[in-house]
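note to self: dont lose this again. the chain is below, predicted strucutre after it. 265 aa total, dont forget to put it in the shared folder this time
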Amino acid sequence: MDKTIRQTAVAGSFYPADPVELQQMIDGFMRNTAPATNDAPVPRAIIAPHAGYIYSGPVAASAYARIIPAHNKFTRVVLLGPSHRVPFRGLAASSASQFATPLGLIPLDTEKINTLVSLPQVQILDDAHLYEHSLEVHLPFLQTVLDEFTLIPLVVGETNPEEVAQVLEHFINDEHTLIVISSDLSHYLDYHTAQQRDKATSQAIEQLKPEDIGYEDACGRNPVKGLLQLAKQFHLEAEIVDLRNSGDTAGPRDQVVGYGAYIIH
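---
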């Protein structure tokens, strides 16, 4: 097996492994999402969920639909998501040169990754990427809505908003780089409690108040809070695009997971 290619870990479980079936599923999500209007601002960044597609795919699609008008503008994607399997401090880059999905290979921006690794909070840690789904589930969406692009994938461990913001500051003024933050919201609350909790978290995101997002509010709270801090610093705006939970999409309502889609512009 080519060690320079990070292979898929959750194709066939979180989303279809067959490329035709996968593309049809994503296309279906996109068709059922309101397209961006001509006067809609082009996002500088998005926040979107990372569960199995039947649960969170429709919500993620609502954020990705806002990128379609800029499909040929973004030539690089910085993708941050939380670590679910490997505990570590800081942010983990990959030594791979390409990431694979059923839709093909995505080249990594290895030159920029080498620059980021010079920061004390960034390290090469392939174990963090090996089985991690929080980044992988976004890749087929990106391959669908963008033309050719390079990828900077960063799994986020225990860190603070300042350290994440320092990394993202390398890209915030580059109009050809899209920042994608992967995060679900509350986990395993009953339907109505989750609605209330996730509404409060969404308000914190819209108001650029990272200090109001608690440990249980979002699994990707660390990258989310870093982005919000940077957005506030650069006088950007956050907008909610969609807010649902697994009880609205494909699951029971006694224990749900919250999903929100947001754009920063």
